[in-house]
């Protein structure tokens, strides 16, 4: 099982946490695609037209990063500051 965390506007739309069954060969990008396939709000806020950052086990990573059973995958919008 994967633990999913959402931050900022994603958290407002989807809640703070969710889970997804683990499947061999998954990457962070494949997790995002599985969530988009749920449709509705998931498709709106995680869609490919949205620029998002991701992390695996508290480490920033590209979507090609493989995931393992028990991992935490987080999604959040890019942060800007001033």
From TrEMBL:
The domain of life is Bacteria
Pfam families hit by this protein: ThiS
Q: Does the keyword Nucleotide-binding apply?
A: yes
CDD domains xrefs:
Ubl_MoaD
Recite the UniProt keywords alphabetically.
Nucleotide-binding
Gene Ontology molecular functions: nucleotide binding
- Biological process terms in GO annotation: Mo-molybdopterin cofactor biosynthetic process
Q: Known Gene3D superfamilies for this protein?
A: 3.10.20.30
Q: Which residues form the signal peptide?
A: none
Could you confirm whether the keyword Hydrolase appears in this record?
no
The record's InterPro entries line, in alphabetical order, gives: Beta-grasp_dom_sf (IPR012675), MOCS2A (IPR044672), Mopterin_synth/thiamin_S_b (IPR016155), ThiS/MoaD-like (IPR003749)
User: Might you report a single GO cellular component term?
Assistant: molybdopterin adenylyltransferase complex
Supply the PANTHER family for this chain: MOLYBDOPTERIN SYNTHASE SULFUR CARRIER SUBUNIT
- Entry similarity comment: Belongs to the MoaD family.
Q: What is this protein called?
A: Molybdopterin synthase sulfur carrier subunit
The species this protein was found in:
Inhella gelatinilytica
